[in-house]
Amino acid sequence: MKKIFFMTAGIILAATPLLAVEPSSLAKATAAAGRLNLEMRKSLTLSILKSGLAGSIDVCAKDAPAIMADQEKNFSLTMKRTALRVRNPENSPDGVEKALLEKLDGMLKSREPLPQEVTLFSTTESGKVRTLRYYKPVMMQGVCVGCHGAPDKIPADVVKALGARYPKDKGVGYKEGELRGIISLTLRENIPESEVK
Ligand code: HEC
């Protein structure tokens, strides 16, 4: 797997799992993020066929948070979707997420392949608990264009419905193949006795 490293506020991000990351935590994160991607693609495609674009707004607005809540419960983690330009201000990126999004956007612009996943691993002050932060790029696909694409690609009834719910909507103007955002996960786990120094 391709590696990327970059420094942001003294934190090093590595595109491949660091050795210290327990496979079980990483496996949980991979499963939860993969599940969200898969379910969203499936639900959106089915819903758009059945109810049209304007009738599918709740798939991205309500189904995605519901799937994330399920994964949070199943795997004891926290999960969000974020991007450089967001539709819902509640999805705004934190500092690390913003730096990563900018880095990934830059890689895409210079035609470098993006990593499938990025992990950041940190140890808390007590030295007994550690935090894994895990990120998965979310790409713009054909099915997303009707709600996140250039304004002329979004039907008038969808523009109206989105405008009413998201007066500060910045989640538009994305082209197919561009980076729409990332899925961001945080997991906390006890460090096994054998690894405590
Ligand atoms: C039918 C309209 C619709 C379609 C199609 C759609 N979305 Fe969304 N999307 C939304 C809405 C509405 C929100 C705001 C959700 C919220 O309130 O959290 C959103 C939010 C998001 C967010 C969270 C960041 C933000 O901007 O708030 C991501 C990431 C995202 N969508 C990705 C996608 C991807 C990838 C696709 C295609 C696979 C897609 N969406 C297709 C309507 C749509």
From the structure above, extract its key features.
globular; alpha+beta; 197 residues; 4-stranded antiparallel sheet; binds heme C; two-stranded antiparallel sheet; disordered N terminus
Describe the fold and architecture.
There is one protein chain. This protein has 197 residues and is of the alpha+beta class. It has one domain (5-192). 39% of the residues lie in helices and 22% in strands. It contains five helices and six strands; from the N terminus they run E-E-H-H-E-H-E-E-H-H-E. The protein has helices spanning 23-51, 57-75, 95-109, 145-148, 156-165; strands at residues 5-8, 11-14, 77-82, 118-123, 129-139, 179-190. Strands 3-6-5-4 form a four-stranded antiparallel β-sheet. A two-stranded antiparallel sheet has the order 1-2. Helix 1 runs antiparallel to helix 2 (57-75). The longest helix is centred in the first third of the chain and has 29 residues, at 23-51. The model is unreliable at 1-12 (pLDDT under 50). The structure holds heme C. Heme C binds at residues 40-41, 44, 53, 56-57, 60-61, 81, 83, 86-88, 91, 138, 141, 143-144, 146-148, 171, 180-181. Heme C binds next to helix 1, helix 2, helix 4 and strand 6.
